[in-house]
């Protein structure tokens, strides 16, 4: 498997992700959007930071179950239920300071959205990996 991450000339500089991720792989792994739910099914406490921490844990567990690591991630989409740019930036910073950080050097999108699927849910992350 090979993953090539690039930022082509003529495109703007990024805060850590790459514009293009080219993959040659035998197996693709698609995670369901990972929510801030604890194993009990309860929403994680601690507001946006606590929910983001739970999503990080959930993604690491799901990747491990698939035989993948954060280095194998080729695409992420991060959804934050907030119109406040600073809150989106705080989630990005928290993700990039976590053990999941290598996943966000790839093709990544960060979106502020009106709402997510569970009541009081503030963050969800969609992840694709290649093996």
Tell me what the structure shows:
It contains 2 helices and 6 strands. By secondary structure, the protein is of the alpha+beta class. It has a single domain (28-130), classed as 2-Layer Sandwich (60s Ribosomal Protein L30, Chain: A). The protein has a 4-stranded mixed beta sheet with strand order 3-6-4-5, with helices on one face. A two-stranded antiparallel ribbon has the order 1-2. Helix 2 links the parallel strand 4 (73-80) and strand 5. The radius of gyration is 15 Å and the shape is globular. The mean pLDDT is 96.
Question: Any key phrases for this structure?
Answer:
single chain; 131 residues; alpha+beta; 24% helix; RutC-like_sf; YjgF/YER057c/UK114; Enamine deaminase RidA (YjgF/YER057c/UK114 family)
Q: How helical, in percent, are the residues? A: 10-25%
N-to-C CA distance? 6 Å
CATH class bucket? Alpha Beta
CATH fold type: 60s Ribosomal Protein L30, Chain: A
Order of helices and strands: EEEHEHEE
Can you tell me the number of structural domains? 1
Shape: globular
Strand neighbour order, sheet with most strands: 3-6-4-5
Number of strands: 6
Question: Tell me about the biggest sheet?
Answer: 4 strands, mixed
Overall CATH architecture? 2-Layer Sandwich
Mean of residue pLDDT? Answer: 96
The CATH homologous superfamily is termed: RutC-like
Strand content: 25-35%
Rg, rounded, reads 15 Å
Tally of individual helices: 2
Give me the secondary-structure category: alpha+beta
Uncertain ranges:
none
InterPro entries: RutC-like_sf (IPR035959), YjgF/YER057c/UK114 (IPR006175)
GO molecular function: deaminase activity
Pfam families: Ribonuc_L-PSP
GO cellular component, one term: cytosol
